[in-house]
Each structure stands twice: as C-alpha cells, then as structure tokens.
C-alpha cells in the first residue's frame, strides 16, 4: 500500500469517526430533551391531579360554588387577553402552589 493510499484511508476513517461522534452527540441531546419532556409531563399530570382533587373537595364540601368557580376561571383566563383555557407561567415574587419547579 502506498503512502498516498494510506493517507486517503486515514482521512476517510477520520471523516467517518467525526460523523459518528456528531451523531452520538445529536442522539445524546435528543435523549436529554425526551427526558425533560417526560419530567414536565409527569409534573403537569401531578398538578392536574392535585387541582382536580382540590376543586372537587371544595365544591363537594360546599366551600366553593361550582358555578362561581367556573365564572372566576373564565375571568382569570381572559386576563392575558386570550380566552384559551390556559394561563401562562409568570415569574412572581410571591410563592404559588402552581409555580413550576426551577
């Protein structure tokens, strides 16, 4: 094998190794994103369960009127200018049970 062929072979293997490293880095990033999505989904489901239990308890105990709670929810929903049944998380100086984990 000539030196030229050896050099070409080394360059080819080097490119292949660099491509493999790049692919491994991309895979690691994707796995990290998938883990974060799963963590956030789990946290959201926990909050949903807690909020559902709280609302149900308060209405069943007669501590809160369900229609008034629904009206207040609708009012708060419109505070951001969009009636979309969502409330964006905002940084606030006062603690909230519904503030996401840092």
H/E topology pattern: HH
Overall pLDDT level = 86
Instruction: Give a count of the beta strands, DSSP E runs of length 2 or more.
Output: 0
Percentage of residues assigned to helices: 55-70%
Q: Termini, distance in Å?
A: 59 Å
Major sheet attributes: none
The gross shape turns out to be rod-shaped
Class by SSE composition: mainly alpha
- The proportion of strand residues reads under 5%
The radius of gyration over CA amounts to 27 Å
Number of domains in the coordinates? 1
By DSSP (H or I, 4+ residues per run), the number of helices equals: 2
Low-confidence sequence ranges: none
Summarize the structure in words:
The relative contact order is 0.05. The chain is 69% helix and 0% strand. The protein has one domain (3-75). It has helices spanning 3-60, 66-77.
Provide a compact summary of the structure:
The chain contains two helices and no strands. The chain is mainly alpha-helical and 102 residues long.
């Amino acid at each position: 094998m000539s030196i030229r062929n050896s050099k070409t072979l080394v360059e080819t293997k080097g490119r292949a190794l660099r491509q493999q490293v790049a692919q491994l880095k991309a895979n690691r990033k994707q796995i990290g994103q998938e883990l974060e999505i799963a963590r956030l989904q789990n946290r959201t489901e926990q909050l949903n369960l807690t909020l559902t239990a709280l609302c149900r308890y308060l209405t069943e105990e007669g501590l809160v009127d369900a229609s008034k709670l629904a009206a207040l929810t609708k009012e708060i929903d419109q505070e951001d200018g969009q009636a979309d049944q969502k409330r964006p998380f905002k940084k606030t100086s006062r603690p909230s049970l519904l503030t996401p984990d840092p």
